[in-house]
Each structure stands twice: as structure tokens, then as C-alpha cells.
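Thread: "does anyone have the structure for this chain?"

Original post by V.I.:
We have the sequence but no experimental structure in hand. Need at least a predicted one for the grant figures.
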Amino acid sequence: MLETSARLLALLTLLQTRPDWTGAELAARLGVTGRTVRRDIDRLRELGYPVHATRGAAGYQLGAGAALPPLLLDDDEAVAVAVGLRSAAGGSVTGLEEASLRALSKLEQVLPPRLRHRVRTLRGATLRVAAPVPEVHPDTLMAIAEACQRHERLRFDYRAHNGALGLRTVEPHTLVHFSRHWYLVAWDVERTDWRTFRADRITPRIPTGPRYAPREPPEGDVAAYLSMRLSTRAWPHQATVLLHRSADDAADRVWPGTGVLEAVDEHSCRLHVGSESPEQLVWMITSVDLDFTLLDGPPELVEALRAHAARCVRAVRDFGGERTG
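Reply from O.Q.:
Generated one for you, C-alpha cells below.
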């Protein structure tokens, strides 16, 4: 039979792995009597762990308490938490950097040497390179997330890309982290349509509004809708090309945020792109490095593609002339 301290740790580990356990199950797993399980449950409660009795068959459930009690993590979980905290220390949510470093320092202090070595090896062998991005205050993210979860209308001041400020009233659906930015996908009450909002441009007005009935996600998929909005619809110049490869084959060649792929058949797919200029559209389309046919786009794009093709022909011609001359 396990000693009392080791048995308490084993009991706590079991309680953390499932939503609820019967007393008989715990006794069988620990090799003790039901009476011993009840005494150990009382000891955990004295230590601050909120262990609740479940209704029906005599059982127990580890709940949430007023304070965060110690957690038991296995090796992989401990490494995952350490890596996550290191990433959060350099993330896009303002105010979390210092807290993440404090938590990481506490965790690394108690890690066994073998795990501390794994974490430091991983950190030393990797380099995080990221362009500066607008930071979002965690209170803003929490206010948005809670409104999404409670299905409550959200009013906020919004700063558009041109700097104009306006008051928006929405039914928030989902908060999405996409391409290094936080976005809110929501139903705009006044415009009676789906809209996307950059979270770093949102200043919530509290309290929130009345509850609403959740709507089906736009186009059946929030991620696909947001990708389409950011890749094409938000830009003044848009185009669609037919790639002469299947969508599965082309997916690895399209950078995240560059465009949206639409499967056609096993030999082709459509690529929808948007940008600030026809010249940028040319770069985005040709960077995929696949044969394509222009299906739709502004007349300026046709001229830009011809100019790009002529430039490439001249480059090859001049190169050949130097080699043979």
C-alpha cells in the first residue's frame, strides 16, 4: 500500500484525469478501502483542493476553487506549458509578457533536471522571428470572448483602417487569431450582415447588451469566411485564377493569407486573391509557381501580367546574349 503522501498525489492525479470518479473506482485503483478514500478526500480538501461529492452513486469530482491549487503535470504536459509560456512572453497580447515570464521562472525552478534540459535544449535550438504586430490588451480579448460565450450583444468604439472612429453594435460570434492578428467575426446589427473587426482597434463599451439567438456561422465556416474576407474582399483589386493542379496539391504552395483555394476537380482549383495594386496581384499569383488561367480581374491586371511576362522574356534573352556573345 502506498504511503499517505504518495497516495494523496496518486489520488489527485486520478481526479485530474476524469470529470468524476466513484468511490469504489478510486479505492480499486489505489488499492485501499472506501473509508481510506474518504479520509484522503478530506485531506485534499484541507489542502485547498475543491473535491465535490457527486449525486447518485457515491462519487467525487475535482472542481474549481477560489484560489488555484497546485497542479500535477506529466513530463510532456510540463514541457508543453513551458514552451507555451515562452511563446506568450513574446506574443501579441499586451500585459501578458511579464506574467508569462514570472510563471515560466516558477515552473523551470521546480522542473526535474531531465525536463529542464529538454526545455532549454528546445529553446536554444529554435529562433523566433516575427514582424511587429499591434498588441491587444487582455481585458479587451476577455470582454469579447465573454460576450461570444454568453451570446450577448457587444457595443464598442471601432477605429477603421483610415483612422475614423465609429460606434458599432454587433452579435459577436467567434474570436479568431489569424495571421498574427486577433479578429472578431460578428453579425453587424445596423448593417444586417457579417463583418470582421481587428481586436486591436476595438474599445468595448460595458455593460454588454441583451442576449441574442446564435446564428449559423457565415458561409458555414468561420475560418473559411475570415480567410476569404482578408485575402480578397477587403482589398480594392481582386482576381480569380484557375490553377492547373488540384486544391490538395496547390495548398502547400499558397502562403497563409495570400488567397483562398476553391476545389474544382481532381486536376484544377480556383485561387481567389486580393491586393492593393494589380502589380501585387501579379506577384501573388505567380509566386504559387503553377500554370494558371486568368478567370476574373480588373483590366489593369491583364496589362500587369503582360508587362511581367515581357520583363521575364527580356531577362532570359539578355542572359542568353551574354552567354553566347
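V.I.: this helps a lot. The chain has a mean pLDDT of 83.
O.Q.: and The CA atoms of residues 117 and 298 lie 56 Å apart.
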